[in-house]
Amino acid sequence: MDLDPFVGIRIFHEYLIANNILLLISFITGLISIIVAVYFYIYVSKQKVGTSKMKEISDAIKEGAIAFLKRQYTTLIVFVIILTVILYFFIGPETSIAYVIGSLCSAFAGFLGMDIALKANVRTANAARRGLKRAFPIGFYGGAVTGLAIVGLAVAGLSAVYYFFPDPEIVLGFSFGASLVALFAKAGGGIYTKTADIGADLVGKVEMNIPEDDPRNPAVIADNVGDNVGDVAGMGADLFDSYVASVVAAMIIGAVTMELGALLPLVFSAAGIIASVIGTFFVKAKKKGSPGKALNNGTYITCFLFALFSFLIVYLLALDMGIFYAIISGLVAGIVIGITSDYYTSIDRTPALRTAEVSKTGAAINILTGFSYGSISILPPLIGIGVATVISYHFAGIFGIAMSAIGMLSITGMIVSADAYGPIVDNAKGIAEQSRLGKKVIQIADKLDAAGNTAKAITKGFAIGAAGISVIALLVAYTEIVGIKTIDIMNPFVLAGALIGIAIPPLFSALTILGVGKNAFRMINEVRRQFKEIPGLIKGKTKPDYAKCVDIATKGALKELILPSVLAVIVPLIVGFVLGVEALGGFLAGSILSGLIFALFMANSGGLWDNAKKYIEEGNFGGKGSDAHKAAVIGDTVGDPFKDTAGPSLDTLLVVMSLVASLFAPLIVKYALIR
Amino acid sequence: MDLDPFVGIRIFHEYLIANNILLLISFITGLISIIVAVYFYIYVSKQKVGTSKMKEISDAIKEGAIAFLKRQYTTLIVFVIILTVILYFFIGPETSIAYVIGSLCSAFAGFLGMDIALKANVRTANAARRGLKRAFPIGFYGGAVTGLAIVGLAVAGLSAVYYFFPDPEIVLGFSFGASLVALFAKAGGGIYTKTADIGADLVGKVEMNIPEDDPRNPAVIADNVGDNVGDVAGMGADLFDSYVASVVAAMIIGAVTMELGALLPLVFSAAGIIASVIGTFFVKAKKKGSPGKALNNGTYITCFLFALFSFLIVYLLALDMGIFYAIISGLVAGIVIGITSDYYTSIDRTPALRTAEVSKTGAAINILTGFSYGSISILPPLIGIGVATVISYHFAGIFGIAMSAIGMLSITGMIVSADAYGPIVDNAKGIAEQSRLGKKVIQIADKLDAAGNTAKAITKGFAIGAAGISVIALLVAYTEIVGIKTIDIMNPFVLAGALIGIAIPPLFSALTILGVGKNAFRMINEVRRQFKEIPGLIKGKTKPDYAKCVDIATKGALKELILPSVLAVIVPLIVGFVLGVEALGGFLAGSILSGLIFALFMANSGGLWDNAKKYIEEGNFGGKGSDAHKAAVIGDTVGDPFKDTAGPSLDTLLVVMSLVASLFAPLIVKYALIR
């Protein structure tokens, strides 16, 4: 009986841990991802910019974007410094260092994503003059820079922080830094982009009847800038933060659950990175094939490879097969959520078609119908998350729940690559139109854009699902940290916490949407003023004052994002210190539940209003300019801040609040009024 | 030590229980309330109807309303029979009998409310010709018939059922009957009224530019019918069901908590009835005083009397003072919720004013702004409910939570009286306009109507708060029945249940709103057809085909309400039988949380869009006919089904689902797949 068949594996394990081999592997994988991103960056940069007109437009967009980012980061620095000091004194120096590193990584990921997008858009437009096959890779590799840089920075950063501070609770600081920057980027960028979009559309398209992206529109540059600061920089930071949060949550739960538990999340994430890197090389537009298919192929290959690698890891490290099942349940749920979300927004499905049809009876019914389908669309993803939770728990306990989050987010590198492709080609189309590159080029740009929209619908649903299961994992991590076994809704304090918690996501959404509304109000007045006061503008004889519009969007966005951001940090602290840790658990649970509802509702109804409008623009129910079209434009305008400002910020809000709770948990346990 | 100072009280208690004295008192109080209602009924009936033109219009409305109610009850009977059979065989004959009685009481309350409203509206209009002081009491006593009949029927019915079947779990059947009828009445009536309203407004007001309630509008009678079947019959049934549910929940919890526990909820409710009856006699419009003030005075007096009576009961029955505090915390929370809700909808406060202002930039920003303020308005009432829960628990344990629900709903008699007054005077105004009674009469009718709107805003918030705390009490009752101590959100099954639960209220809202949309689509086409095909209609030379519009609204409403109603009964059963009792607890908790969000959001945003429009109609931002007004009309049309169809039905949905869970709990415990 002295013979131990597992002795070999044990020695292997001890060797891995003692020498930090697993950590080293994760770190190197992160670096590889960054190196591939740099390779793509160089590839894109080498392409030609095109005509001088194109360069001019591109420079104007760049200038506006950089100006915005500069101001945003300046405001952000104040926040970061304040929080660093607070963390330093109240939580500990290590956490505050981790926090600063997380902030820097997140900010850098956002900056890089925007920088490459600004390079890639004009180059894609230029390459479109020589055909789709030339243009597509520039757009996609541009997106892949963001995708791979994000996951690379996340895993390399986490590995490094954990190497120096081998305590998952300190690593929380890294995640907090990443998330707070993401909240700024997402909410600020979201307010900016919709301010500009609504301003450009409502006056330009609706009142003056000029086409989208027309250079006569004073808000057109601001609109293009918005695509970059909102969709690229914001979205990049957003997925960066969900990704990091899910890994950290899993590390915390893993640390108390099993040997290697704190390291496994990093190892599996590394596997996801390798799968994503390989996946990106499989994205190739064939001569006749659609670019949308190419993007999806890349995603499927990444999923398959990740499943394979996960199996190998489980086998090699002699882990329980339950962990493998948990990971796969998350991965499958992510895909299912993406696909079902797609149904509710696709241009050729009942929800969008029906919404388009009722537009004939006016804007009110269009809005009511879109609102309703958006509300219905909440159910399938929630069932998906619920099933993944139950299955992963069944196979691997609470650690399983965390690992299913890792499974869902594993393919983030590929997802972000496909997603960041969208705004790049959208901008390329805009540049092509403003530079008057001709019908054929615009058609190609349109094709590229359509593929981007399809990819976006799927990845958006996916992102919400991933964020949902990440925050559930964070909630589990919170209970571990504060040492409570239950969050019992029958406990009146927990119930009170939950009642406050469910009100926060709608409050936050409302504040950002009101921000958009206020800012758009200013923008609309400015655009109207320019059309009225600048002689010859509508005939195209004079140039509008683009910079003024960019400036309004920038100032307004930063002003409007302060209050919601502060709320995200302060409200959990108030609930915790007044009502205690259990109530704070209820608060987090409540906010997660209502956050998921609102995020799904907003993303999907916004998407379907957009497509209902597009369907009418294709010539149905009276086509462009008809009453139905006018009604659908109103619906689309309502949906815009839903899907691009409030909805996506909610994921980040949930993560930030969960992290605040976990980080300050030790203080709350000690000093709460109700204990 | 043999001397027991409480021996006198004990003997008193035993006497009360042995001789069912408390039960008898409750029953008699219920009867008194019904008798006073009959007295008001006779008073109103005695008033004069007015001109033959008025009688004609009144008869047309009556005819349509009766036709609707007949069809609705015919459909309902099928449901009731099926459920009676199911309850008979699976739960027990007593429960099925209680169920039938509950259904009958609820249906009768709805019918009575509508009958008196149809009598009171034309008589109020007629009396308005002789001044406000003459007209006001007819409107108010008409409302009081509904208010007092409802609480009377509820308490007398509950007392009788409990006398024959002294088991609170059987009394649940009564509550279930009441709630399912209420769901039909509320959702069906809600779809009807908004179908007609939107049809009348969109074509009549917006397209044809004729005033509201103009007799040339083919949908005008359907619109008037809708006010009665939706606002009066539906709302009456709705508060009947919340009221009954809170009493039954408290009886169940009380039965296992303390001596007399099962009876106390009835006794305190009886006290509330007496307070309400006295309160109604204090509602008198002085010559110069505003009718709105008179309504509020009645409410405050009722609150004060109820507090006094409660104190006396606690003192006389030698109960713990904690129970008194619990009751008062509920009452105070109810008032606070009503007042804060009022802020978000009032015509002279920031939310409505700001929404009116942004209407200048178009419908989209109007909708976004209203949506946002509606979302913000969720927080204060939830804090109110949370605080009431914590305080009442602190003073009297879980029974305290149930008693705070009783406290909040105690003044239902008065609240419904003031609320039912609204649609009566609204209709009176309509009849005055259609009968062309002249400017002065219409001005008086307007004043009466404005008072109704203010009362309505407060009572609506109150109703949601009351329903919220009732379903929390029902949730506690559920855990008592199935014998679980916690609903732990960290249990993956509970979490999965909660995830499904939160998706149901938005799903239900969406189905009813889509129902309105579909039905309004038919109605709009019909109204357009009539204006086009009936010669001389727009000039007022020919009469439109009112009956056709009434018919479309009726058929459509009944068709569209089947699916959501069936869902309300079936989904909890599926969750329970598949995932088990704990998951079902999570499901209920989730549905309560998201139901509260949506109910508050919809009621308040709908109300504020309405008032933003009215503010513009008062001549601001361009006044009637301006672009801002058109935008505000779209917002109001979006808000209509929010505040009058989906929002109010949600309360009832939550109650129905909770009752289904509690009723079938014994079966679920036995046969669930996961136990």
Description:
Chain A is 85% helix and 0% strand. Chain A is an all-alpha fold and 675 residues long. Chain A has one domain (51-671). In chain A, helix 7 runs parallel beside helix 19, helix 9 runs antiparallel to helix 10 (321-345) and helix 15 runs antiparallel to helix 18 (581-617). In chain A, 69% of the residues are buried. Chains A and B meet through helix 6, helix 12, helix 13, helix 15 and helix 16 of A and helix 6, helix 12, helix 13, helix 15 and helix 16 of B.
Task: Give a brief rundown of this model.
2 copies of one chain form a homodimer. With 675 residues, chain A is mostly helical.
Keywords:
homodimer, globular, mainly alpha, 19 helices, 675 residues
- Spatial extent as radius of gyration of chain A: 24 Å
Task: Extract low-pLDDT stretches of chain A.
Answer: none
Subunit organisation of the chains: homodimer
Distance between the first and last residues' Cα of chain A: 50 Å
- Average pLDDT, all residues of chain A: 89
Largest interface: A-B, 78 and 77 residues
Helix/strand-derived class of chain A?
Answer: mainly alpha
Instruction: Report the strand count of chain A.
Output: 0
Q: Number of helix segments of chain A?
A: 19
**Could you give the order of the helices and strands of chain A?**
HHHHHHHHHHHHHHHHHHH
Q: Which of globular, elongated, flat, extended, rod-shaped describes the shape of chain A?
A: globular
Strand content of chain A: under 5%
Total number of distinct structural domains of chain A: 1
| Sheet of most strands of chain A | none
Helix content of chain A: over 70%
